[in-house]
Write the structure tokens for this entry.
Amino acid sequence: MNNPLVENYFRMDKLPHIWCPGCGHGIIMSAIARAIEKSGLDKDKVCIVSGIGCSSRAPGYMDFNTLHTTHGRALAFATGVKLANPELEVIVIAGDGDLSAIGGNHLIHAARRNINLTTICFNNNIYGMTGGQYSPTTATGDKGTTAPYGNIDRPFDITQLAAGAGATYAAKATVYHVNQLQKYIEAAIDHKGFSMVEAVSVCPTYYGRKNKKGSAVDMMNWLKDSFVDMKIAEKMPEKAVGKFIMGEYVNKVEPEYTELYDQVIERLKR
Amino acid sequence: MSKVIKFLQGNEACVEGALMAGMRFYSGYPITPSTEIAELSSEKLPKVGGKFIQMEDEIAGIAAAIGASLTGKKAMTATSGPGFSLKQENIGYATIAEIPLVVVNVQRGGPSTGLPTSPGQGDVMQAKWGTHGDHPVICLTPDSVKETFDLTIRAFNLAEKYRTPVILLTDEITGHMREKIEIPDVSELEIYNRIVPEAGDDYKAYHVDDGDIVPKMAPFGGGFRYHVTGLMHDETGFPSNSTQNADVLIKRLMGKIEDNKEDIITYEAYETEDAEYLILSYGGTARTAKAAVKKLRAEGIKVGLFRLITVWPFPEEQVRALSEQVKDILVAELNFGQIKLEVERVVKGNANVRLCGKANGEILTPEELIKAFKEVL
Amino acid sequence: MSDQLELRLSGSGGQGLITAGIILAEAAIRDQKNAIQTQSYGPEARGGASKAEVIISNEAIDFPKVTIPNMTFALTQVAANKYISDVSKDGTVIVDDSIELPEGIVAKHIYKLPIIEAARNDVGKEIVANIIALGVIVELTKIVTKESLEAAIMARIPKGTETLNQMALQKGYELANQSK
């Protein structure tokens, strides 16, 4: 059972994790660890910040400077960490509710500032920790414990939301397409500026059961069949009909916030 | 080193004090009547290599300051009424996670949007109980521009020493008033910095070493990879559902303040030695009280002033001792008796306790207070 | 407390009377006295009338607000209607000569001087009306020394405007002397 990645990047004594069997979050967490390994970051200089929810427990298992904050506020805490010490590589882990409902204001403003934070959204389309209430990414018509007659809200596309707010890197992949997901997380870590990767996850326990989506395997197969790579969709639009698009939505270079602030400090020295 | 004489607003003196105490990070959101604190911080911090950021809301304002404090920087946020309400959850976070932080609340008239440009003192109980759950609180309140400077430094010192958020509760009176202030040289000041662990230690982030008051605090990025959470945690810092652990932690948090009250509590006792009557007040209102006491003394009435400088923890022993000496205690405050209740609790019927209070945005005048006082004669 | 002087300067927002109040207080501090300055805030200060209050004393100043002013000053009619009438009976009222004094106002000295006109026509910039006002006030009341006033003005004004402000101050002294 010796796995160097796990031994290197995880707190062995804190495992096993609390996530349900079939939950997609472990796949994202390991993709983050592999991406950090690939990026060659110094563990002491990595800070992982989370809010509240299922995904937000991830930092507790990961052997870095880890900060488990209040619901929705991970990006605000992370902004303080990063601005106070820009040497740190700050990665934010947040669920769909955490990031786009209670923390939505922080998401759009972190993106607008283009501060060098890497945000990984664990999107399982539901509030899992509290037992299956509908979230801002629950599809219209789907059920949750607070949408017993079907959700009448329209869902957010979190990747497009971040892109629209000014994120200079925004990508989407699923826990089924894990290699692609890892590639995007690597790119997001290497990217200078605000980056967001939406990792579409699965919650068989609540979302799956409430909406009769079958087993965890069925839900993974659904991801396989429902998402099409952006490049394929561009070449063969007929393949994208009725599908979700994954890929790099935005990847551009713009001035980064902490560097701009440092320039102000330098200017004042003269 | 020479002293510098300036003519400053209380809000400006707060920033001067913060910088001398070592503030290197400020995050906040504009709100009247505290905004000058943000404005001056934005001007001064980058000049000393510090950072200022205007966040998207009040909640983010305190959250970013907590994040910055974790990297080893001394951090502050300032707000008023409605913003203080919004910051409460994260005040609790900084309390349980033991993160040094200064939160300034320049009180205005409330509730809600209330009277944005007028003074109030209606947040004294919120300062104690605003965040949910049982928790200790350190809260200081100045009555002048100079004391705003001094107490801002003290707030940073106490935050660092006890690893806790410290609330500096000023008001629109002292915040906006300009007064003469002598700014001392930094070498004359006592500045306290958090104790950091030595490299190579077997670091347990929430273990209190023998002889220490609080756990040593490693900066994020300093080579100690540890975990910080708002959940109940054990001495390693990791979440624990154990009621036994929770009991140890909450008692330690309460105890570190309760057991050090003598170090934390300061007050001013003015003309109390032979006093038969007492006026108790704090913040900007205490100036009215002092003027009233001077006038009453000139009439030959033996009245003294007890002025809270530390509001929380409350100077119970001192007030109780005075209650055994005087016949009557008149509490002067810009609310409907928040501290009066506390005084009543503490004096246990030793003395009559009365209130001279209002919350309409006006400050109490010495004449009003004298009139209320004389009802007892 | 008997030697305490309470002053109120008022006008419309942007006329620089809050700055004038701060300068007066700073001049008092240069004279080794204590001083406190407060002002109106918010909507009150933006439209309509704004005011600055200054208390000067040889002793500690406890209560920070003006109760019965020894001197009131107004540059606009709106401010005069609101802020000058509660002057002490043995006090001084100074207003711009465009102002019609509120009925029933009682004071030992009442001066109406062409401050705004002097700023506009003699100095050439209406913005220095507040400095002319300071010259008038100090020449008429001697609440601070001229040396301290000049030093306090020079410390507050933007660089490059020294000559202009010096002219305005002299104009203020002159207006006051003409009215004596």
